[in-house]
Amino acid sequence: MGNVDHMEQRSGVSKVAGAMLVVAIVGAVIWLVVSSGRTARAKREQEAAEKTRMSRAISALAQKHDAVQDWEDALPDGFDQRTYTAHLQDLLVRDGGRPALFLAPLQDVVREGDGYTLHFYDAFRSVRLRPTEIKLVLRATRGQAEKILEQRSDGMFEMFAVIAHVESVRKAAITLNPYGVDDEYGESLIDAEDVFFITGECLDFIFVGDYEYQE
Q1: Radius of gyration (Cα) for the chain, nearest Å?
Q2: Dist. CA 72–CA 91, nearest whole Å
Q3: Any idea where the domains of the chain sit in the sequence?
């Protein structure tokens, strides 16, 4: 009889231990879910705050130079294959010399004599199903070039908000294939694309990382 009681006690202890283990596991899972949710929410809030801060910085930069900010909104049909050079000339090449704001990644920095040229290339318009692209070719001072060369980012995009005094707009219908070689499918070294070259002077800029591409 004593052995039976002892076995029942051991069985009861095992059941209690098992139940406590289940409770502990469930509690750990709940904690992980709640903690993960809080972390994700905190990250979203941080990203939203950073985007708001960057948006204000861009607006302040544009206001400082009295730059045209939403010039793309004035295009008759948006930025598409029916955008012509004259449209951009009317919007960007202004008699009063009012500059414009651009958001574009840096492509290259070139030293030319005593000055520099900054190249910005908005190659992501095609990803957004916009068949036209923009390349900015802007004169810059040594100080501007050194500042932009010192910029480092851990992000995917090297995006800048650029204030430029635009002097000319032209369109290139043919560009070199960026892959540089023909492939087995017969892709040519020359691609027919619509690329607008906007030239002028860089007045100011700030680094904005992947601001334009954040959700």
Answers
A1: 29
A2: 9
A3: 1-64, 67-213
Q: Report residue 75 CA to chain centroid gap.
A: 23
Q: Write out the two tokens for 128.
A: 């957004």
CB 135 within 8 A of CB 195: yes
* Pick from 118, 72, 119: nearest CA to 92: 72
Give dist(CA 183, CA 176) in Å, integer.
Answer: 14
CB 121 within 8 A of CB 157: no
Tokens at residue 118, please?
A: 């900054």
The one-letter code for the residue type at 129 is L
Which tokens sit at 153?
A: 């980012």
Task: Determine the Cα–Cα distance for residues 79 and 133; give it in Å rounded to an integer.
Answer: 9
Q: In CATH, what number does 67-213 get?
A: 2.40.50
Alpha helices in the chain (DSSP H): 2-64, 85-92, 142-149
Q: What is the pTM of this model?
A: 0.68
Do the Cβ atoms of 58 and 208 come closer than 8 Å?
yes
pLDDT digits (tens, 9 = 90+) for 12-45: 556 666 667 777 787 777 777 776 766 767 777 7
